Structures are given as structure tokens and as C-alpha cells.
Amino acid sequence: MADTPPNENVGEAVPSAQKSSWATFLKSIASFSGDLSSLTAPPFILSPISLTEFPAYWCERPELFSAIADAQSNEERSILVLKWFISTLKGQYTSRNEKLGSEKKPLNPVLGELFYGYWPDVNGRGQTNLVVEQVSHHPPITAYYIENPQKGISLQGHSAQKTSFSGGSIIVKQIGHAILTVNLPNGEKEEFLITLPRLRIDGLWYGSPYIELSETSYIQSSTGWLSTIEYKGKGYFSGKSHTFKATLSRPGSTQASQTYEGLWHETSKNVRTGELFTDVTTPKEEVTTVPVEEMDEWESRRLWRWVAKGIRDGDFETASREKSKIENEQRQRRRDEQAAGTSWALKHFDHIDSDPIFEHLGRLFKANPPTEDTYVYRHNRNPGPEKA
């Protein structure tokens, strides 16, 4: 565990008036057995953003996503997929740290919660559309579909978390995967299986939590090219937080064809040539949505707007009251369904027990587990600026 947060300028997340509440929360974490996601966090440590919005982080650099479709060879396509993937990590795992002073706990989505957005066509890159649905509450599972129809590229996936406490850190095992599909000019398609890294939340005892990635994730192409990404924190490759080393290997080979390393929240380079590989120090592009007033009652930003406002204003009493109101309503909805012998119907996704693409591509690098379930998008939403 790192001794200090990676950003020395980050202030403490815990207001002075809340120190005792934070200490009590830490004690409850340390003594809790089971999945920590079921614990109720104090309002001052909550983020004003629901987990249902998180899939938008996949495409905050939409030009890198669309560029994958322009690759001229299988190797180049795998390099561009790796470049795009590494460039998503800062948004997914440190942007809230920068905005909010330190890492905050996202709002737990309710079953059926929705999030829609898009990134408009700029300079011929095509419009990229996003559909997200909370498909399970216990355990919490978020399914998403991202597509750029003009470029013939899409990403379908789901994510869940199992959280535990160990060695003074919160350990988050990310469950789920994503499948990136590229329609090729010759009429064929190439698929990429993307697995998710494990997270470690450090800095708890300083009152300034931050995320560090750990262990290994993979990007396996249906053409055989494999990217292996190792994540290390302080005291490893460079002695810096947020360090990674990625190797790209040819089909049927374990030898690295290309090696990249650096900091996933700043820059990285090609080890052999010294050429810049990723640079996420430049501004990202936020997802576009319709105004909150025009959203459906189940859309994240409308559903949680008064909770979010309370958190942003530092009015934790209001945030807690509004949050309890939503959660109690959901509990009652589940009781009503149970009494009626019905269950919640998903709006945009169908669940299947075993993903054949995961099973096929996972076999190429001996994925563990060898099979995983998935959620398949129904293609039943008309995208566009007027309906994000």
C-alpha cells in the first residue's frame, strides 16, 4: 500500500466535523465480513454520480474509439484498441479524485436505472451513442452498449464489483467483460475480448481515498493478437503510482512484438522506439445528454438530482434524506413484485448464461473463469441528438 496519495495537492476528503463519523465507518469496514458494497457510506464520502453513468468513461476520447475502424492491418487494429483502452483508464479511475478532492463512493444504482448519451460527429469521426441500464441490484450489475454506426464499431459489456477489506485497503474485484466489434471493409468482423483490472482503494487512513489498479487484464483479438496489461503502484516499475506495462504478442506467440509502459493517468511510450503512445493530459470530451427536465424519471441524472445537489452543496442532511426516499421506494417496489409473483422486466438488454465470444476468445489466453454470463443489447433505442 502506498504511504501517501499520488496527488500531493489533493486535500482530505473528510470534513473536520465528520472525522468521528469517518473513524466509525473505517472501523465498520475493518470488522465487516462479506461484500462491502452493502454497507451504507456516510453522505460526505459519496459521489454525486451514479455507477450507471460510468460506462461513459469508455468514450471520453471518441476520436480514439472511432480511429480503431481505420486500421489497415490486424496488428495496427490491436495497437489502436490498446491505445484507446489505456486512454480510458484515467477517466474511469481518477477523474472523480481530481474533481472531488479524493475518491468518493458512487451512488448505488437502482434496478432499471437508465443513462443515455452521445458524442457528436466531429471532423468525420461519426457520432458515438451510449445506452446504459442497471440490470441487477443484488448484486449490482450495469450493462452498456456503445456504437459508432458510421465507423462500424461497437462495444457491449457489463460490470459488477465484489468488494472486501484487506491490509488497510479496500479491494475491488471487477466482474464482467466487454466485447469490442469492428466491421471490416471486406464484410468480415473482428472481435476483441476485454477483461477488467482489479482495483485497490488506498489512502483510507489519511481520509483521502484514491484508486490504484493492480494485477493483469487482457485484450484478446479474434485474429490471435493479444495485449497483456500489468498494473503496478508505488515501488514497482518506476516507483510511481498508476504505472502500467503492456505487451502485444503475435498469434500463437508468447514473445512481445511491442511493449508500452508509463503512467495510465498521464503519458506512456513505446519502449523500443521511445515514441509517445498515450497522452491523457489533454482535455477529455464529456458525454452529451438531453437536459435533466427532458429525461425520463428512470434516467440517472433526473432520478438522483436532489441527492447530487445536496452532495455538491455540502448539504448532507438533504442528500441523505433524498437518498433514503429513493431507496425506500425501491424496497417497496421489490416487496410489491414479490407479493404479486412478478419480476422487473429489463428494457434494453437480454441476459444469457454464457457468452460464446468470451468462451471462445478467453480460451486463447486461458481466461479465468473460462466462461461468463453477459447481457445482449436489443437495439431498441433510436439514437440521435434529440434522443441521446
Automatic annotation (TrEMBL):
Pfam families from the UniProt entry: Oxysterol_BP
Tell me which domain of life the UniProt entry assigns to the organism this sequence originates from: Eukaryota
Task: List the molecular function annotations (GO) for this entry.
Answer: oxysterol binding
Region annotation (Disordered) ranges: 318-342, 369-388
Q: List the InterPro entries hit by this protein, alphabetically.
A: OSBP_sf (IPR037239), Oxysterol-bd (IPR000648), Oxysterol-bd_CS (IPR018494)
Extract one GO BP annotation from the record.
intermembrane lipid transfer
List the SUPFAM superfamilies.
Oxysterol-binding protein-like
| Composition bias, Basic and acidic residues | 318-338
Q: What would be one Gene Ontology cellular-component term for the protein?
A: cytosol
Family, per the entry? Belongs to the OSBP family.
- What name appears for this protein in its UniProt entry? Oxysterol-binding protein
